[in-house]
């Protein structure tokens, strides 16, 4: 399956809610599904972040052929002049085990490498999320630290570009 990334727009909340309201998707992220109000607040923050840069932000993962929604990919900066970006993804369970996360990871790294200002990528994962850890390590990321994120365990991995 070939994938493409398109930025989320204000009209895409139903796709976002489908992801973050799924307990399986959120198990390794927040350990719980998000309710509609909380999801809307998070989605609005992501839409605002998307306005920082044409090349960075939160993207829909779509099947290139059918345009079916697969999940979310992010390569996120916090300010216009940032030199680092955070990558991450969430994929609907019916698409797990099909190599999509690996393709998304590679695409996000390519985007970062094409932007001169970015010299470091990082990802934060649940230490129990071995498939995501394997994808990151296979793409050159190295483990930097384990720390607490809002009461949840996290491992920070980074890639110097």
Automatic annotation (TrEMBL):
Where the record annotates domain N-acetyltransferase, the positions are 3-161
Which CDD domains does UniProt cross-reference here? NAT_SF (cd04301)
Tagged with keyword Lipoprotein: no
Q: Which InterPro entries match?
A: Acyl_CoA_acyltransferase (IPR016181), GNAT_dom (IPR000182), N-acetyltransferase (IPR051531)
* Molecular-function GO terms, alphabetical: acyltransferase activity, transferring groups other than amino-acyl groups
Where does the source fall among the domains of life?
Answer: Bacteria
Keywords from the named record: Transferase
Extract the Pfam families matched here: Acetyltransf_3 (PF13302)
Instruction: Please identify the protein, giving its name as recorded.
Output: GNAT family N-acetyltransferase
Q: Please give the organism.
A: Paenimyroides baculatum
